[in-house]
């Protein structure tokens, strides 16, 4: 509906607009409840059978499913405008470049950034964090401190540990309580007593669903002279991102968790910071001039986009953003709150099952079952078409903090229903009876 | 009894292969066969071993599964076995099932065991995602025997992927 290109005849040569801005009025006209059967019809994967019944997909925190219209937009782009960006002078190159830069502006609107040049396309969240660690990180000196919270995903931990090995910086851990709330007293003490240069903090835990008080944390960091890198990989799929209101310095997320394709991620960075940082990867596009003696880097954002970018995936990400703009954040949040409340209530009735985190958690609920390993549990119900993730969810320090080797995680997306949760609960009950010692 | 179990398990395996659109009940039996569940719930040879010749622990970091294996070795034969561990049903049942075979086995034969032997012992199809769980027992055995011989531990790759190179 927002993406017109797939309806255009092949012969249409001019003015093909691959990505159309979301109509602002959709926010005002939006109904108060989501039309779930209509939404579910748009996701082919939800109609895939496993063991004779459609899958119950409750693993959107690992990767969200993608609506068919996004695949169609990507296919239409490949068919009508496939060429490289920022290089050729021919018509296809112009179409591709226009679509690619329009997508950048769509992402700018999505995160509430001031300038589209503040949006850098990467491969995923992991690459975006590594980009900051290898560029802003290179400006740090031995003895400087990077704060990392216990809630972080490995991709938000290891790049700083690698930087510590390269540059002799110090990585300090901001502790959490049992429910995944950041220990603000520890945080403030680090800011007062250490030379903190960067704070790495998730906007939403991928295990507990807890959301640290970012605004206040960012304010305190700025007062102490530190910059803040926000990992919004989970958050961006469930709540509106507003980098200007948040005042974060960097923010990262992945396309595939916000209903877009895999292979594309985003780094937002404040213009001044990005301009002062050294380039990341060297290659085509990121240079202004190259001589035998050396090179000068291009302006942002090209400075950080060496080589041919994932063009079709970027088009797909913008298409996914425009697709979801037809729903208001209020109705999406209300829907997912209901799903998680239903899940917590249902799971709590299973004997020996312990829920982690608190009732105001967002996106997911993780749990353990006495005497049943999460891998066995999710393997058994997985064979019945119920898709849940189990393991350490790339957050081993958090699991060590919680004192559990692994957990099972139920996570929700816009397309889930309370029936999904009920089917899942029933299968878990049966599996626990089968497996329990 | 053991041979009968194996025969029954193999039969299941081929039945499941033949019936790809199997119902979920059949599918469960794939990996979580009664044999596996029985060993997981009542593991054999579990417990510390007094006067062990060698003790060695291996961890499957991807899952957090652990197995600590103790062996008594005399005259080139494994004469007693005890093990402890934590983890999923597949990893723990695997060690239990293998332990049954090991008592009285010559060390040379134990060293020559391959992943195919473990899969045959388990008697159920093991998917890609559970291979490490199923083969933790073999990896632990290999490195326990290497430790007894004063050799450094070998990697997962040596045990499960490019063995015999």
Report on this model:
The complex is a heterodimer of chains A (437) and B (165). In chain A, 50% of the residues are buried. Chain A is of the alpha/beta class and 437 residues long. Chain A is built from 15 helices and 17 strands. Chain A folds into two domains: 232 residues, Type I PLP-dependent aspartate aminotransferase-like (Major domain) (Aspartate Aminotransferase, domain 2, 3-Layer(aba) Sandwich), CATH 3.40.640.10; 107 residues, Aspartate Aminotransferase, domain 1. Chain B is of the alpha+beta class. Chain B has one domain: Sufe protein. Chain: A (Alpha-Beta Complex). Helices cover 51% and strands 16% of the residues of chain B. Chain B is globular and about 40 Å long. About 9% of the residues of chain B have low confidence. At the A-B interface, α13 of A face α2 and α3 of B.
Task: Indicate the percent of residues in helices of chain A.
Answer: 25-40%
Q: C-alpha Rg of chain A, in Å?
A: 22 Å
| CATH class term of chain B | Alpha Beta
End-to-end span of chain B in angstroms? 36 Å
Index terms:
heterodimer; A: about 425 residues; alpha/beta; Aspartate Aminotransferase, domain 2; Aspartate Aminotransferase, domain 1; 2 domains; 7-stranded mixed sheet; 4-stranded antiparallel sheet; 15 helices; 17 strands; about 40% helix; globular; B: about 160 residues; alpha+beta; Sufe protein. Chain: A; 3-stranded antiparallel sheet; 8 helices; 3 strands
What's this, in brief?
The complex is a heterodimer of chains A (437) and B (165). Chain A is of the alpha/beta class. Chain A has helices spanning 25-29, 36-41, 68-81, 91-111, 125-135, 158-167, 184-193, 214-223, 243-246, 271-276, 311-324, 329-348, 374-382, 396-402, 418-435, and strands at 49-50, 53-54, 56-57, 119-122, 145-149, 170-174, 196-202, 227-231, 250-254, 265-269, 287-290, 295-297, 353-355, 364-369, 386-387, 389-391, 407-411.
């Amino acid at each position: 509906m927002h993406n017109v290109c797939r309806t255009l005849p092949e012969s249409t040569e001019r003015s093909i607009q691959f990505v159309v801005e979301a109509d602002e009025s959709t926010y005002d006209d939006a109904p108060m409840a989501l039309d779930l059967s209509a939404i579910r019809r748009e996701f082919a994967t939800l109609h895939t059978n496993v063991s004779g019944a459609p899958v119950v997909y409750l693993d959107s925190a690992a990767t969200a499913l993608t609506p068919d219209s996004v695949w169609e937009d990507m296919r239409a782009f490949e068919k009508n405008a496939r060429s490289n960006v920022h290089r050729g002078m021919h018509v296809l190159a112009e179409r591709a470049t226009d679509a690619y830069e329009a997508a950048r502006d769509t992402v700018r609107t999505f995160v509430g950034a001031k300038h589209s040049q503040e949006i850098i396309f990467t491969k995923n969240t992991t690459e975006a964090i590594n980009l900051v660690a290898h560029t802003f990180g290179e400006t740090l000196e031995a003895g400087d401190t990077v704060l990392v919270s216990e809630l972080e995903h490995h991709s938000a931990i290891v790049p700083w540990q690698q930087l510590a090995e390269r540059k002799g910086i110090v990585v300090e851990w901001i502790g959490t309580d049992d429910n995944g709330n950041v220990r603000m007293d520890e945080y403030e003490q680090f800011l007062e007593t250490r030379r903190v240069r960067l704070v790495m903090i998730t906007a939403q835990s991928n295990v507990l669903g807890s959301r640290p008080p970012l605004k206040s944390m960012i304010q305190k960091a700025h007062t102490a002279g530190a910059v803040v890198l926000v990992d919004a990989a989970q958050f961006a799929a469930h709540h509106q991102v507003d980098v200007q209101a948040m005042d974060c310095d960097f923010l990262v997320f992945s396309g595939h968790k916000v209903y877009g394709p895999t292979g594309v991620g985003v780094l937002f960075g404040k213009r001044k910071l990005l301009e002062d940082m050294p380039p990341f990867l060297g290659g085509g596009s990121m240079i202004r001039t190259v001589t035998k003696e050396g090179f000068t880097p291009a302006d942002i954002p090209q400075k950080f986009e060496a080589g041919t970018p994932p063009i079709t995936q970027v088009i797909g990400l913008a298409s996914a953003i425009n697709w979801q703009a037809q729903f208001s954040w209020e109705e999406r949040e209300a829907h997912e709150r209901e799903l998680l409340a239903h899940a917590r209530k249902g799971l709590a009735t299973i004997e020996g099952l312990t829920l982690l985190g608190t009732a105001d958690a967002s996106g997911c609920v993780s749990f353990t079952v006495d005497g049943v390993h999460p891998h066995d549990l999710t393997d058994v119900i997985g064979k019945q078409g119920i898709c849940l993730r189990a393991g350490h969810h790339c957050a081993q320090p958090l699991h060590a903090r919680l004192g559990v080797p692994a957990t099972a995680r139920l996570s929700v997306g816009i397309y889930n229903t309370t029936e999904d949760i009920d089917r899942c609960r029933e299968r878990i009950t049966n599996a626990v009876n089968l497996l329990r010692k | 009894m053991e041979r009968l179990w194996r025969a029954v398990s193999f039969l299941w395996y081929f039945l499941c292969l033949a019936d790809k659109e199997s119902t979920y009940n059949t599918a469960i039996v794939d990996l979580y066969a009664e044999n596996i569940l029985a060993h997981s719930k009542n593991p054999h040879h579990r417990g510390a071993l007094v006067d062990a010749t060698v003790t060695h622990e291996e961890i499957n970091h991807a899952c957090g599964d652990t197995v600590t294996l103790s062996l008594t070795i005399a005259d080139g034969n494994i004469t007693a076995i005890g093990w402890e561990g934590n983890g999923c049903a597949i990893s723990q049942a695997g060690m239990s099932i293998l332990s049954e075979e090991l008592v009285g086995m010559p060390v040379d034969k134990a060293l020559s065991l391959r992943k195919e032997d473990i899969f045959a012992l388990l008697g159920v199809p093991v998917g890609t995602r559970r291979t490490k769980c199923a083969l933790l027992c073999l990896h632990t055995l290999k490195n326990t025997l290497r430790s007894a011989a004063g050799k450094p531990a070998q990697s997962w790759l040596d045990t499960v992927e490019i063995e015999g190179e």
